[in-house]
Amino acid sequence: MSTTRPIRTIGYIGLGKAGYSLASVLSRSSSYSLIVQDADRTRAELFIKEHGNATVATTNASLNEIDVLITMLLNGSIVRSNGTIIIDTSSSSPFHTRDTAELLRNLNPTLILIDSSVTQEYAFALSKGDATLMVGCSDPNALERAMPVLKCMGRYVFYMGSLGAGHAMKGLNNYVSCASILGLCDAFVAGQKFGLEPSRMVEVMNRGTGGIFRRGRGLTRRFKSGYQLQLLLKDMKFARKVIEEMGVTLSLPGLIVRELEEAVEVAGEGPDHTEVIKAWERRAGVELIRSKL
């Protein structure tokens, strides 16, 4: 396989919430043929039923002739054809990403790994093609080849640097967001105990300095952002590792991880990340007033 020919065939492994949405964007493009695979065969078959421009990989050999492999769960033994680009869109440790690249090089020196983490307001909105991609790649030629595919999946594509940079950015982006969420939990429970109405607090924050981040989801009690609390905890551990490996001594990363671990004990591992507020409610002995925000 020539490493300069245009990308025509895309393999996609991992049809979870975000993966399903991103794959659906690719299936709508007439520029590519799509081969999908998932551990849950019924989910892959559902995807094919809903998206005609795709087929199911019945065996690993079905993926041998693809030009690009996009995966949420990297398995380096799947693709062995020369010049294949592997795009990892998961939330992963950037250090693990670099280790994986080394394993791939040992398997086949022509396999090229690109990390491209995803962020967006709602995971379910990824199917609209409005995702923001954070890309790390150490091979300029591979990045040039993959760029049309990346731009097909997302509205905004940011090249962050060498391999692992995309995953590092995802962790740090979520770190900033999470720090804001925990501060918001503090403000809500303290404010309501003082006599403030949480929905009114949100109105003020959205018109002032507190409106830098999205506010108020927990007040609806719907808890349907599409991003699990357990995944947020995982991402915060990745972010803490990045900060520690850079030799930066900070107390906030460890504090955030401990607070989230307590929240998981209260809400469980399956709930939405906005249910983190329940840990604060239990600690403060209050339940925030429900709002239609």
From TrEMBL:
Transmembrane segments: none
SUPFAM superfamilies xref list: 6-phosphogluconate dehydrogenase C-terminal domain-like, NAD(P)-binding Rossmann-fold domains
Top-level taxon: Eukaryota
Pfam families xref list: NAD_binding_11 (PF14833), NAD_binding_2 (PF03446)
Active site: 170
Assigned keywords, A-Z: NAD, Oxidoreductase
Ranges where the 3-hydroxyisobutyrate dehydrogenase-like NAD-binding domain occurs: 164-279
GO molecular function: NAD binding; NADP binding; oxidoreductase activity
Family matches, as InterPro entries: 6-PGluconate_DH-like_C_sf (IPR008927), 6PGD_dom2 (IPR013328), 6PGDH_NADP-bd (IPR006115), HIBADH-like_NADP-bd (IPR029154), HIBADH-related (IPR015815), NAD(P)-bd_dom_sf (IPR036291)
Residues in 6-phosphogluconate dehydrogenase NADP-binding domain copies: 9-161
PANTHER family: 3-HYDROXYISOBUTYRATE DEHYDROGENASE-LIKE 1, MITOCHONDRIAL-RELATED
Name assigned to this protein: NAD(P)-dependent oxidoreductase
Record organism: Passalora fulva (Tomato leaf mold)
